[in-house]
Amino acid sequence: MAYLELSGVRKSYGAVKALSGVDLSVDAGEVHALLGANGAGKSTLMKTIAGAVVPDEGRLTLNGEEVPFGSPELARRRGIGIVYQELSLIPSMTIGENVLLGRWPTTRGGTVEWRRLYRNAQVHLDRLGLDLDPRDGLNGLGMAERQLVEIAKALSSDVRILLLDEPTSALSDREVGRLFEVIRGLAASGVGIVYVSHRLAEVLEIADRITVFRDGRRVETLDAAGADEGLLARLMVGHSLESEPRQAAADTHRGDADVVLRLRGLGRPPRLKPVDLELRAGEIVGVFGLVGAGRTRLARTLFGLEPASEGTIEVLGHQMLIRSPAKAIAAGLGYVGEDRAAGLVPRMSVAANVTLASLGAVSHGPVLSFAREREVARRYLDDLAIRSDALDHPVEALSGGNQQKVVLARWLCSGARILILDDPTRGIDVGVKEDVFRLIRTLAGEGVAILYLTSELKEAQTLPHRLLVMANGQIAGTVPPRTSEEEIMQLAGGVNA
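Above: the chain sequence. Below: its structure as tokens.
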């Protein structure tokens, strides 16, 4: 008998059917992967199991006992742990406080027993191989480290069912390997794992069974041993997909195009050492690096989120001091960060999020025109294949992939001529990835200069015209995108840095 069983689960948001009579079973000790295009219903189903969403219909049983929906606390007490794609850590708390959130040890007098709290938290950090001090704050951690702290937090409970929603989206290959060791150990001890990922090769490596969703329905459940990436992609979207982005050949870009961005000795030591870089109109320059290499620091420095402490920035031939995002936007820069949630205002409408960097174009003097806002936003939503009936919905109601499209639409709307994209395909499915790659090539063809930062080696080798490799906070080398994986990884590992 399955340890977890869902039957007939339905959930609608107005006219949108997020789940349409879904059945799912997970055995003790099984790794059961969920696949589907963005908006297929995976995250809604995960939130339903975790008690965060109350379905319109359906039944949930754990070990043969029916469990009511709608209580995250009850789900946790019944042994259900979840790691959401958008992290739920509290920045003002220490690492240890976050790991044991809601379960801090106390004395008989009711005060927190801090020494025991940090000692217990250290056990869970060590379990994931994290070399972190539980007394430290979160501010110094990158997305990958925060993701692993979130996983340590989920594992700190006595979980019998662990739900992982895109747990590797910000992890390096080494960290993914360590996480897979932990998952296999948990499964061997009888824990059932529900694993959501858009990385097909990863799913085939770690899963025992795979369930594919499309449009809120379960399409098929199959053994991972009998599947391949092509089959899974076809089941997800209903037709064949390119397995990876097409090569952006160097001869598609004119090398004599105008330089629109020039960096000279730009840095913020010690984590970002001086960087020299030129970016031409219509050029896609890739920046590849492993976690902690300095990619995100470079992007944030360029956009004024962490202003440079040395060096110069020249935009369209004019030297500028960019010390805030407002200055960057005024100079014609756009930025999509690795943390998608930080780029959105969740409770504002989709239309408002699209026009957020272009308020002058949708206002009459100081008065915002809602009709103009909708008109402008609809044009970009149509271009990016986001449902136009979503205009008035809060952006938080969209799937992760469509949220990413909204962020991209904002910068298209703003007329930015230089786009800084930091891992823009993190956590989105293969279908939406194709849309993003197609859009990037189209923008480059229209003369937009794109700095594309990625931790995905295949993307680094196939999308840009030129590739920079970062290690230890500096550019370790510039290579043609077709350079071998071994040579790129040597540079990324700091061999020649």
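Confidence is low (pLDDT under 50) at residues 247-251.
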